[in-house]
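Let us practice reading a record.
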Amino acid sequence: MHMRTKKWARPELAACPYYDDFPEHRRNHWREAFPMDHPLEVELGCGKGISTAQMVHENPDVNYLAIDISSDILGDARRNIEQAAEGQPVQNVHVVKCDIEYIQRYLGPDDSVRKIWISFCNPWPKLRHEKRRLTHPRQLMQYRDFLVPGGEIWFKTDDDDLFRDSLLYFDVCGFSQVFLTYDLHASGFAPNYITEHEKKYTQKGIPIKFCIVRKEDRTVDVDPVHWIRQQAFPQNI
């Protein structure tokens, strides 16, 4: 669905001291962008920042990168973060515009990210679009580059097929399961920062799938992308 252009979004972002527009120059130097050297966590596809604002406000001892590709969406995220701050200076988040497909251009090993949040990303159900998933091996191998050993991915979705496939992706790419539930709200797990999509799906009675996976400190012995293709097209093996 095409989002309506918001004429106010770009001017507000341009004036925002914690907004970065395709910041390739910050690669391996993100810690220097924050006044305090706290652990760094990244939210991929932050959307309107409903959950981002909760995280940033409740965890002042964590620095966050809230990443999305749309200036219009990031404009909403900035406003929601400001609202949650209740007039206090916002110091532990940067709102970042970049294409997650090329995330390695913007984050590197020296950034030492300890956690990645991926919530309700596009499931791309057609096989020819599978590689666009934020949990696809092509992406996961990029994330491994800037995640610290033992770094985690917190992933949730309403989509059964995406969740099932992602569990396989994680395993092949050297991530081990820490926590897994097929009904997040019934599990009692906390903390859970609820997104706009999560509210919608929960109201419809759709259970939220959620897992935490941890980067294993080992070499991935196979080409994960090639391996996944073999599973999809076994006749070509």
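A brief commentary: Residues 25 and 106 are 8 Å apart (CA to CA).
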